[in-house]
Design a protein that fits this description.
- This protein is α+β, with helices and mostly antiparallel strands.
- The protein contains twelve helices and 31 strands.
- The strands form twelve sheets. Strands 1, 4, 9 and 10 form a four-stranded mixed beta sheet that branches. Strands 3-2-5-8 form a four-stranded antiparallel beta sheet. It has a four-stranded mixed beta sheet with strand order 29-28-27-30.
- The longest helix is centred in the first third of the chain and has 21 residues, at 188-208.
Length: 631
């Protein structure tokens, strides 16, 4: 009895060892032939070294405890496994994968599962993919109600219906999930697999909100879908809405281009399945590949101009370019022919006239200089008020300052004509404040000229320049200040004048008197003729104090005035004829200033006082007046 019992124990131990090792089977091992199983794991393709497990299961789909392991042998996700087993089994893959939406490898591994039936011996194929994973739990739930193949078929039909990926009427998908492969050629079945895979990846991207969270979001999403289907063969409303939005957002051309590039890198010569054969991204019952407007619903496929682009998304079907250009269907904009312009090419381009013929335009470029209306028939000009000349290039009588041509009366310039004469220029006898710059005294003889009775005011400057630079603002009749020497000269030239030379300025101040001050030998008279340190803390309106005998105001005080001359440290060799001194050869661009200002003391406001300023300096106490040849 003891020997017999021992024999039974040994035989049972041997059978148990065979069932638990990688070489056993679920039935009589002597009747089981060696099977050679090959396939691939694909979300996109899993990478080299990803784990593959085959676990035999019982009739209820539960693992028996027997396990066969292998790995993918390349970056195409392919694996091979030789086993001695026949019957139902779970295939499971775990690893990193290529994401066809992001165009890169995953940052974390995922698990995919499949139910498969292993035949007794021979070579067989089985693929683990997104379809097999999504239907996995539903297959197990259905096993008790029918056969293994029937459970898989029903689960995958329910999956297609629940996902609603593709046209509402469905697609004639024939193969089961384990027969589908992205690298299996461009068939409708394989295109459906890729479409589902891409939509799920897009949905995970939407849910994650960032690329570095997509892998976890994808695993959570596909596991959740599998469990939802297991319970009722349907999905939660929020998941359905997410998948709907993912289909809309998916860039199918980008997905297929990225996957094609990946195939080339991993040595796969398979064509990428065309997911536009599956997806209906405007949900109008026509798949993208057959839809003449795949992103805008148009179930009737209307195409009035027969250009292959449906009217629903054809921005150019009614010739929005008026027959004079090419319409860009992406945005409806017109690329007009050379002689046409306008959003709808319904105008003549610059240089052309007479729409719709649009021939050469005699008014381009504008012969009227912007100061008149050009007749497109002959190119003649009808000048605006204030302008004259065949091409409107001069001011009418009574108007000044071309190209502004303002009414002279409104502008308010008063010119004082000074006759020619002679005077002694420089520091006068008895002036104890003389400086070397004011000497030597020398005789000057000059021709007559006109000089402004007033310093140029802020309102006058603004009228011609559209500028108000003065830091003492809000005083239209105060002298303009903070004007550079080039700006002051440019203003005068618009009036057909120039800045006065130092000699002209001094002659205007000394023509009737050779005193130290413009009003006499003592500063006691200054308050009557000049705004200076003794009676002002800012500039004041021009012409409000007494004028010279010639009728010239504010020659002393109010603001320093730019002269035309360059600065020289003394008056040695100064011009004796009234002309400007070294007009175009200033050292360091130093220009002469005369007359003193509202902040000047009684030394600076002497007639002979000379100082300099940088030509590009805009000083708050400096302005100007103009002079000209007497007409």
């Amino acid at each position: 009895m003891k020997v017999s019992a021992l024999r039974v124990l040994v035989m049972c131990s041997v059978l148990l060892w065979a069932a638990c090792s990688g070489n056993g089977d679920a039935g009589d091992i002597a009747d089981t032939l060696e099977a050679r199983l090959s396939g691939a794991i694909e979300k996109g393709p899993f990478v080299l070294g990803s784990g593959v497990t085959l676990s035999p299961v019982d009739d209820a789909g539960n693992p028996t405890g027997q396990v066969f392991n292998t790995q993918t042998n390349n970056d195409r996700g392919e694996f091979a496994l030789t086993i001695r087993y026949q019957g139902r089994a779970i295939l499971e893959g775990n690893g990193f994968y290529y994401n066809e939406v992001t165009g890169g490898l995953s940052l974390a591994p995922i698990d995919l599962r499949a139910y498969a039936s292993i035949a007794n011996g021979g070579s067989q194929q089985a693929f683990i993919n997104i379809i097999t994973h999504l239907s996995f739990d539903r297959v197990k739930a259905l096993l008790g109600a029918g056969g293994f193949s029937a459970a898989i078929e029903q689960a995958e039909q329910e999956l297609r219906s629940a996902l609603a990926i593709g046209p509402p009427q469905g697609l004639p998908i024939e193969g089961v999930g384990t027969s589908l492969s992205m690298q299996g050629g461009d068939t409708l079945d394989n295109a459906y697999l890729l479409a589902v895979s891409a939509v799920l990846a897009q949905a995970a991207k939407i849910r994650a909100g960032a690329d570095d969270g997509i892998d976890a979001a994808l695993q959570e999403l596909i596991n959740g879908i599998s469990l939802n289907l297991a319970q009722a063969g349907t999905l939660e409303a929020a998941t359905v809405e997410l998948l709907h939005q993912a289909q809309i957002d998916l860039d199918t051309a980008d997905v297929m281009a990225k996957l094609a590039a990946r195939f080339a890198r991993i040595g796969s010569d398979a064509p990428v399945p065309d997911i536009d054969r599956v997806l209906d991204q405007d949900f109008d019952t026509v798949v993208n590949a057959n839809d003449n407007c795949p992103r805008t619903a148009n179930p009737g496929q209307e195409d009035r101009d027969n250009d292959g682009i449906g009217d629903a998304c054809d921005l150019c079907y009614d010739d929005t370019c008026s027959g004079h250009g090419q319409c860009d269907n992406s945005d409806g904009s017109c690329d007009c022919n050379d002689t046409y312009a306008g959003d709808a090419c319904d105008q003549c381009a610059p240089g052309f006239a007479g729409y719709p013929d649009c021939s050469d335009d005699p008014c381009v470029p504008d012969p009227c200089n912007g100061h008149g209306q050009c007749n497109s028939d002959d190119g003649t000009c009808a000048c605006n008020t204030g302008f004259t000349g065949e091409i409107c290039n001069a001011c009418e009588e009574g108007y000044i300052a071309y190209p502004h041509c303002v009414r002279e009366q409104e502008f308010g310039v008063v010119w004082v004509t000074l006759p020619g004469g002679s005077f002694d220029m420089g520091c006068v006898e008895g002036d104890g404040k003389c400086l070397p710059a004011e000497e030597p005294v020398h005789s000057v003889t000059l021709d007559g000229f006109d000089i402004m009775a007033h310093e140029v005011t802020q309102v006058q400057y603004a009228l011609l320049t559209d500028s108000r630079p003065s830091r003492h603002a809000d005083c239209d009749q105060c002298p303009v200040d903070s004007v550079t020497w080039p700006e002051a000269r440019g203003f005068c030239r618009m009036l057909g004048a120039d800045l006065p030379s130092e000699t002209q300025w001094a002659y205007a101040a000394r023509r009737e008197s050779a005193d130290i001050y413009i009003c006499g030998p003592s500063d006691s008279c200054l308050n009557t003729v000049a705004w200076w340190q003794g009676n002002a803390d800012n500039s004041n309106p021009v012409g409000t104090l007494a004028a010279t005998a010639d009728g010239i105001f504010d020659l002393s005080g109010n603001v320093w005035e730019w002269a035309l001359d360059c600065w020289h440290d003394t008056m040695d060799n100064a011009p004796a004829d009234g002309t400007a001194w070294d007009l175009d050869a200033c050292d360091e661009n130093m220009r002469l200033l005369k007359g003193g200002a509202w902040d000047s003391n009684n030394n600076d406001i002497r007639v002979s006082k000379r100082r300099w300023g940088l030509a590009n300096g805009a000083y708050l106490n400096t302005g100007f007046r103009c002079a000209r040849e007497t007409p």
